[in-house]
Amino acid sequence: MNQPYEPNQPYDPNRPYDPNQQGVRQPGYDAPQQWGPQPAYGRPPQGAQPWGPPPQKAGNGRLWALIGGAAALLVVVGVVLWLVLSGGGRSAEDTVTAFMEAAKHGDATAAKAVSCPAVDAKIGDDDKGSGLPSDVTYTVHDVEEHGDSATAIVTATAEGEKVDLSFKLKKNGDGDFEVCDYSLS
User: Fold this and answer.
1) Does residue 177 fall inside a structural domain?
2) Which structural domain range is residue 178 located in?
3) How many domains are contained in the chain?
4) Per-position pLDDT tens, the chain of length 185
5) Rounded to a whole number, what is the distance in angstroms from the first to the last CA of the chain?
6) Other C-beta atoms within 10 Å of 28: how many?
7) CATH no. for residue 173?
8) How many CA atoms lie within 13 A of 105 on its CB side?
9) For residues 169 and 150, is the Cβ–Cβ distance under 8 A?
């Protein structure tokens, strides 16, 4: 009765072990032998990651980069459009204010810098001119820009008297407004 044990047979210590028995194999003895240092129990081989590759981010970085890039592009387009549509030059109000400041201080050179050649002839060459009275105050109002031309009214007060001046302006080749005519209203 020298038969191999069946899986459901109880163990019999009186029965000798027969290495020639068919079908009974010890696990791990049929595998080819590995030579060299073996990894420690529970450790992966050197250079291997036991947990796999690192997890990928959720992808929000790329989304935020796209949103930021789109916002920056919109700002650049907005600034370019504003500069193109507004002409990018000195406004009519800024021109009249600069002209009045030059007149107040008797600075013919500064006045000519913001005026047309026709007005330059009225101003003359005298940088030491009397200009306006030192106590003059003025307000620029009713400024209307229509493409390359504009009008403005200045109310000036000196020594208790008010005077209204009308200004006509045109854009020069640089896109800046220049005073091309002025008169008492």
Assistant:
1) yes
2) 92-184
3) 1
4) 555 555 555 666 676 655 555 555 555 555 555 566 665 566 666 666 666 666 666 667 778 888 888 888 888 888 877 666 655 578 899 999 999 888 888 888 888 999 998 888 887 766 555 567 777 888 999 999 988 999 999 999 888 889 999 999 999 888 889 999 988 87
5) 137
6) 6
7) 3.10.450.50
8) 10
9) yes
